[in-house]
Amino acid sequence: MLTETAERPNHSPLLKGIAGRLESQYGDHFTRDTLEHYVNDSYERLAAESRIVTHVPAFVERFARQRLRALTKLAGRIENHPPEVLFVCERNDASAQVAAALFTAGAGDRAHAQAAGEMPEPHLLADAVAALHERGIDLDDRPPVLLTEEIEQAADVVVTLDAHDDVPIVDDTRFYAWRTAPNHAEGLAGYRAWLDDLADRVRQLVAEVVPPNPRRRFDRELDALGARVETGAAAVLDAVTNVLAAPTGAAGRPGVDDVTRAAHRDVEAASVELITRQQPVADDLRRIIVLNRTSEHLASLGDSVGRIRRLLTDDAITDDPAVVAGLDRMAATVTAMTRRAVEAAVGVGHDRAPAVAALGRDLEEQYATVFDALVGARADDSSRPLLVAARVARELQRIGEHAVGIAEQAWYRATGERDLPAPEADGDAQASGS
């Protein structure tokens, strides 16, 4: 049962309520009797300090929660727990709370910081609270807390702040003794100057004891993956523009197919590593899938550009006017499709994606026209130049298909919808040379 005495107000209902709330968090680790014992013991320890006895109801829940968390860690019931950092000052009326708040602001959820003192005061010093509030950090939820053995022992890092370095050093605990204190005589100005020094110390401590944020690393690597795909997209667009505009002049240019295939292998390998190391949330996973599929389309598109470059460099193509005019129209269309698809893929605007599909329909009609022209070509034209023209037309058609695939991935990334909508009437989109 929770203790109540004749000399104190009847806090038993309040303490039972605290035990009930703690049971929802720690009920899997401790029995109700154990929880009530720690609530009761925390109450007794705080009440024993005459300076804070009137504030016991406000402090006891936080105090008991800190002790239970420490016991849970000591018992090995918290797996992969972040580092526990304990800031200690004797009166626990400013320095430790301010340091813990600064530490939490810098470390986030990568570490757990708390403050405690051997003889805690009933209130935090107003100037310390005001100086920290100016930095956008409030101390409303950090009242003075009594230092206990289990809180000390559960800490991975202990920092004392008022030249008292007699806190017990536990095995595997890192210990720091900071001799820093505000100039109380200077009022708020003194606390501001002290806070500058303390903030520098805390920043260094965060860098020393807190593991890197895996989410930030994941985001950086995901952005780098996107940058690789964008680089490949730029190379493909450059190759399409140059090869199809001046095929014979492109003979000495590096093969874009080799570049895009190598880039796709890198994207695939990096994606597997990202997914293996951290289970992505749905949006991240969708982005990784889109980047991989876009990279694959870019690689296949690069293959087609490379084959066209080699065909037009190594072989003669028919000079039949109808065939040549049809191929020129197809080249202009796939250039426009690739440009719009790449713009959509690199984030210039996913609204460009539907127009790619519209141009794709134009391309299919143009391919049919070229096929008809090949069938009706002059009888005295040799078969090899006609065959080269047919192969070029097929590769142009493939480029268009992959441009649509890239546009579909950009649309899916932005909207979650897999199918491109029918584009609105757009004279520029319908012009194959746009």
What keywords describe this structure?
434 residues; 14 helices; 4-stranded parallel sheet; 4 strands; mainly alpha
Large-scale geometry: elongated
How big a fraction of the residues is strand?
A: under 5%
Tell me, rounded to a whole number, the average pLDDT.
Answer: 79
Strand order of the largest sheet: 2-1-3-4
Which stretches of 5+ consecutive residues score pLDDT under 50?
1-6, 247-254, 425-434
Proportion of residues in helical segments: 55-70%
- DSSP strand tally: 4
Would you list the SSEs in sequence order as H and E?
HHHEHEHHEEHHHHHHHH
Structural class: mainly alpha
Q: Give me the Rg, rounded.
A: 35 Å
What's the N-to-C terminus distance? 83 Å
Q: How many H/I helical runs?
A: 14
Largest sheet: 4 strands, parallel
Structure explained in plain terms:
This protein is mostly helical and 434 residues long. 63% of the residues lie in helices and 4% in strands. It is built from 14 helices and four strands. The chain has helices at 12-26, 32-48, 56-74, 95-107, 126-133, 149-154, 187-209, 214-245, 256-277, 282-314, 321-345, 353-375, 383-415, 427-430, and strands at 84-88, 112-116, 157-160, 174-177. It has a four-stranded parallel beta sheet. β1, α4 (95-107) and β2 form a beta-alpha-beta unit. The longest helix has 33 residues, at 282-314. The radius of gyration is 35 Å and the shape is elongated. The termini are far apart. Residues 1-6, 247-254 and 425-434 have low confidence and may be disordered.
